[in-house]
Amino acid sequence: MTATTNPHHDRRWLILVVLGVAQLMVVLDATIVNIALPSAEADLGFSDGDRQWIITAYALAFGSLLLIGGRLGDLFGRRRLFVTGLAGFAAASALGGFAQSFEVLVASRALQGVFAAMLAPSALSLLTITFSSGPERGKAFGIFGAIAGGGASLGLLLGGILTEYLSWRWCMFVNLFFAIPAAFGALALLTDTRPAHRPKLDIPGVLTASSGLFLLVYGFSRAESDGWTDTLTLVSLGLSAVLLVTFVLIQRRVDEPLLPLRIVTDRNRGGAYLGMGITAIGMFGVFLFLTFYMQRTLRFSPVESGVGFLPMTFAIAISAGLATTRLLPRFGPRPLITGGMLAIAAALVGLAQLQVDSSYAAHVLPAIIVLGLGMGQVFAPVFNTATLNVAERDAGVASAMVNTMQQVGGAVGTALLSTLAATATTDYITTNGGPSPDVIAAAEVHGYTTAFWIAAAIIAAGSVVVGLTIRGGAPQVAAHPAPVAAH
């Protein structure tokens, strides 16, 4: 699509602002509520065991519905899905902010996930068709990738400030200040498009993909709380595998598949999806355990912990911008994504050296700066590569795959690393004389560092797989198909 046929070209940078605000809201919500959970628990009177469902409800709905959300945008209009997602997310956030019971709060989080599944792929696909080629695409994806990578740490800071100085409820209400202006901006700036021929929705694909992804995320979430040998954990993961294999078989046979396999079998796109999923396995663990370390070991307040992550956010922004505007056009995605993953692995090895008496400035800060530089080298090129040369009719579902890999990777990483960290903590206490205060403090840090070591190994090994998958050389932009009709 050229500037003359792109209806968004003249207002592309304002559109980027709107899309960036929406993306920031979705990413913030993955972490902002974590900080608010203890206060919400005290206010609404639910148990520690129930607390995980406030996180899990969002992840289940979001992760399982992303593919259908992306395809609905392709079929019925991305602006329509984007605005619907924003409006629904705002309403669900208001419901959660006013919640007077645990059940209502969980329901609001599930609804947030439903509307986020419409919103996130619509935002990335709108970015894809607005900045389809040229140097400006690199700048736009650098900004978007920085938001995606750094938003989680900003969520920790914002959540801490709102919880400490206002109320946990403002961690929900704050979404209205993102969603409402973004919705009005989208209505004013975006032109909806529809395919000249609107194919039928692949219902068997929808059912198998959504249920398979739901059971996958649920199975890993349950493994974290009930263990890997729990019957329901094993049944969920087994059924998920059957359903997802069935989904792939269906996609090979139907005329209008939910996820055309040409999207994921392209080596560069497939490698980008793998890079996102493997990196997410380690990243979710970093935020979880490093937050615990700052608050429990270094005795940081929630606000101080959020501030502690800011250097990483700045490093992501610098690295993402450099990666997509300078390095990606010259060297291609393979050295950037694999090099970024190796930098992340090196940073995790640095964090694995933490002790009870380590300091933030000498031990945490250098590692999280390297971590941010690596994340910027991964996230921005992944978003760019995963959507490059995708036909406009498939932009939504291709974008949804990026978010799906991030969500699934996060679920896998949180469950796997939490389980291994808990086991390491228990073993340390057992072998070091029992649960005295000093032993417990050391055992907790031992659990965190075990998780960092394992995450480093996963990401380092993953970088080899990604490097073998993605082709070498600078990306080649294919001729774009004829634009679809506006309405």
From TrEMBL:
The chain crosses the membrane at residues 12-33, 53-69, 81-99, 111-129, 141-161, 167-189, 201-220, 232-250, 271-294, 306-324, 336-354, 360-383, 408-430, 450-470. It comes from the Bacteria. It is found in: Cell membrane. The keyword Manganese does not apply. It comes from Svornostia abyssi. It is a multi-pass membrane protein. Keywords: Cell membrane, Membrane, Transmembrane, Transmembrane helix, Transport. InterPro entries: EmrB-like, MFS, MFS_dom, MFS_trans_sf, Tet-R_TetA/multi-R_MdtG-like. This is MFS transporter. Residues 15-474 form the Major facilitator superfamily (MFS) profile domain. The keyword Thylakoid does not apply.
